[in-house]
Structures are given as C-alpha cells and as structure tokens.
C-alpha cells in the first residue's frame, strides 16, 4: 500500500462490492489519469458498460459511477478518470498507486453497448472529455469490427494534453494483441481541440457541419439513419444538443430493451 492519503485502512468486500488491487497508474495531465486494477473471476461485463468504484469514506464506501475503458475480454480492468480538485472521490483517487486497494461494484450496467443498437454499416462514437472511456473499451473488442464496416471515434477536448490515449488511437491500436489488424482498416480517430491551436479545432457539431467528420469514410458525407449508428458520451449539454440533432435527422434512441439508431450516456452528473 502507498504512503499517500488515498487509502487508509484495509477494505472489506460487501455484498455489492469486491476489493481489488491497483496495478498501474498513468497520469495524462493535471486533470486526467487512468489506472488498471485486478479483475475478479466472477466479474462479467459487456464492452461499453459502467460500474461503481471507490474508496472508503468516513462511515461507508465512497462510490462513483465509472465507464470501464478496457474491453470485456481483458484480464485487467481499466478506467479513465477526471481529477476534480475538491471532488469527494477524485481528490483522493488521483493519489492511488500500484498495490493500493479499491472497491469495485459487482454489477456493471449501461446503454453504450452494441446490443442497444440496430445493425448498421458505420458506428460513430462521439465523446467529450472522459466520455472517451467506454469507447476505448468498445474499440478494443473484436466484436465491434465484425458488426460494423467502419468505426469512428471522435474525441473533443479543451486542450491538446486532454487527448488521452492519443498515441494508441493515432496508431490505430497497432500494439493491440487482438484488434490491430481490423482497427488498421476499419478504425478512424478524429481528435478535436476547442481551446488551443491544433490540426482540427471546434466542437463536434462544427465538424459535422464542415464535413470534416466524414472525411475518408465510405458512404454519405452526412449522418444517415439507414446506415449509421451513433453513441454519445460526455457532457450533458453535448448529449442534449446532439440527441436533438440526431432526432431531427430521423434517428431514434435505443435502449437495451429496444435497440435503436443511437444511444447516450452522460460522462458525469452536473
Ligand atoms: C454513468 C456515468 C459514468 C461515468 N464515467 C466516468 C468515467 O469514466 N470517468 C470519470 O472521470 N468520471 C466518470 N463519471 C463521473 C464520476 O461518477 C464522478 O463524478 C467523478 O469521478 C468525480 O467524482 P468526485 O467525487 O471527485 O466529484 P463529484 O462530486 O462526483 O463531481 C463534482 C463535479 O465535477 C464535475 N465532474 C465530475 N466528473 C466529471 C467528468 N468525468 N468530466 C468532467 N467533469 C466532471 C461535475 O461538474 C460534477 O458536478 C461517470 C458518471 C456517470 C453518471
Ligand atoms: N480540461 C481542462 O483543461 C480543464 C481546465 C480547468 C478546469 N477544468 C474543469 O473540468 C471539468 C470538465 O472539463 P472538461 O474539459 O473535461 O469537459 P467540458 O467542459 O465538458 O469540455 C470538453 C469538451 O466538450 C466541449 N463541449 C462542451 N459543451 C459542449 C456542447 N454543448 N456541445 C458540444 N461540445 C461541447 C468543450 O468545448 P468548449 O471548449 O467549446 O466548451 C470541450 O472541447 C469542468 O468542470 C472544468 O471546469 C477542465
């Protein structure tokens, strides 16, 4: 266990939580980090789902929802996290080190799963900030390349250093043991930065309007409900605005119970 303030006493499993060990930690910048932890043998999830995780609070576990960034086949579980300076959880979670203990919920769930979408040709994954996390899970899952001809990951952030996983994505997951060959042909990465100079700038809506989003893709140079499926994850405002746009273009929202043309999940509350 580390000397930091993140973990104070050994954690005890509960009916809802297992206790896992932090394996690796990667700090992207002063706002973002990712970490991996052990995976219990009983932990099953679909790529794209989220789960509760946390540390011990004053009286009870202090838990927050987190999208799983690793694919369903992986031995370790990975997360991408914001560092909210005064955040009850992340002000401490950002201090974790390999060997520390973390609570992990036993019941992953969520709507950013291919089961909630109808079949299609192109899958667009539109994210802001930490909303990239569930898409890192899905694009490392071979199933997604069997289901769609083209898989497009859009990551919209304020600053260049907020582009977590940029190298992996720019290389089209060249080092990935399972999907590198499919990703090389089918994966498209579109990073965009809104508050610093970069080769691509502007919010996702601006990329749709300019046509930048569709550059290099087969098919229409616009969203088409006949061929396209869309997943949205990020700020509430982005999701609200973009859902309205998609509906105006003839897309219907899907769920686990009733698959549709697009699905949404907010990356945080507030
Ligand atoms: C379904 C779901 C999935 C989530 N997945 C992730 C994830 O993969 N990674 C992650 O970092 N967070 C994720 N969150 C947010 C996460 O649950 C916590 O809010 C976050 O860890 C901060 O916890 P906190 O206790 O430090 O601060 P909180 O009290 O929870 O949040 C304080 C404020 O910080 C801001 N904030 C919180 N989280 C974010 C964020 N991710 N991006 C931008 N601003 C934020 C909001 O304004 C919020 O009101 C998810 C939330 C939901 C509902
Ligand atoms: N990332 C940082 O550098 C930074 C620095 C200090 C504090 N913080 C704090 O961290 C929290 C989260 O910051 P964040 O940068 O992860 O998330 P964010 O504020 O949601 O911004 C992420 C990206 O989403 C875009 N965006 C915001 N609203 C949108 C909408 N309605 N439609 C389309 N795109 C939209 C932003 O563009 P715009 O730039 O055009 O808004 C930005 O590129 C905030 O509370 C912030 O105060 C972040």
UniProtKB/TrEMBL annotation:
Biological process, per Gene Ontology: cellular response to oxidative stress; heme catabolic process
Name of the protein: ferredoxin--NADP(+) reductase
Record's catalysed reaction(s): 2 reduced [2Fe-2S]-[ferredoxin] + NADP(+) + H(+) = 2 oxidized [2Fe-2S]-[ferredoxin] + NADPH
Enzyme class: oxidoreductase
Pfam families: FAD_binding_6, NAD_binding_1
Cofactor: FAD
EC number, as in UniProt: 1.18.1.2
MF terms (GO), sorted A to Z: ferredoxin-NADP+ reductase activity; nucleotide binding
Transmembrane segments: none
Taxonomic superkingdom: Bacteria
Domain called FAD-binding FR-type: residue spans: 12-115
Family according to the record: Belongs to the ferredoxin--NADP reductase type 1 family.
PROSITE patterns, per database record: FAD_FR
Keywords: FAD, Flavoprotein, NADP, Nucleotide-binding, Oxidoreductase
PANTHER family: FLAVODOXIN_FERREDOXIN--NADP REDUCTASE (PTHR47878:SF1), OXIDOREDUCTASE FAD/NAD(P)-BINDING DOMAIN PROTEIN (PTHR47878)
């Amino acid at each position: 266990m580390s000397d930091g303030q993140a973990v104070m006493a050994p954690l005890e499993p509960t009916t809802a939580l297992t206790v896992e060990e932090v394996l690796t930690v990667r700090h992207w910048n002063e706002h973002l980090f990712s970490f991996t932890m052990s995976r219990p043998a009983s932990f099953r999830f679909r790529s794209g789902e989220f789960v509760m995780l946390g540390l011990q609070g004053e009286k009870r576990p202090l838990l927050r929802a987190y999208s799983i960034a690793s694919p369903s086949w992986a031995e370790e579980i990975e997360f991408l996290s914001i560092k909210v300076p005064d955040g009850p959880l992340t002000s401490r979670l950002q201090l974790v080190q390999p060997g520390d203990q973390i609570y992990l919920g036993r019941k992953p769930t969520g709507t950013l799963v291919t089961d909630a979408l109808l079949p299609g040709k192109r899958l667009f994954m539109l994210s802001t900030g930490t909303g990239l996390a569930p898409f890192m899970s899905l694009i490392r899952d071979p199933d997604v390349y069997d289901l769609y001809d083209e898989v497009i990951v859009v990551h919209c952030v304020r600053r260049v250093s907020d582009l977590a996983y940029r190298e992996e994505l720019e290389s089209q997951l060249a080092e990935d043991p399972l999907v590198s060959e499919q990703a090389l042909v089918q994966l498209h990465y579109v990073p965009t930065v809104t508050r610093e100079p970069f080769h691509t700038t502007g919010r996702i809506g601006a990329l749709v309007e300019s046509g930048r989003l569709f550059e290099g893709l087969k098919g229409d140079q616009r969203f088409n409900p006949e061929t396209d499926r869309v997943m949205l994850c990020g700020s509430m405002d982005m999701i609200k605005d973009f859902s309205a746009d998609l509906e105006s273009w003839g897309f219907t929202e899907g769920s686990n119970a009733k698959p549709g043309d697009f699905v949404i999940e907010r990356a945080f509350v507030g």
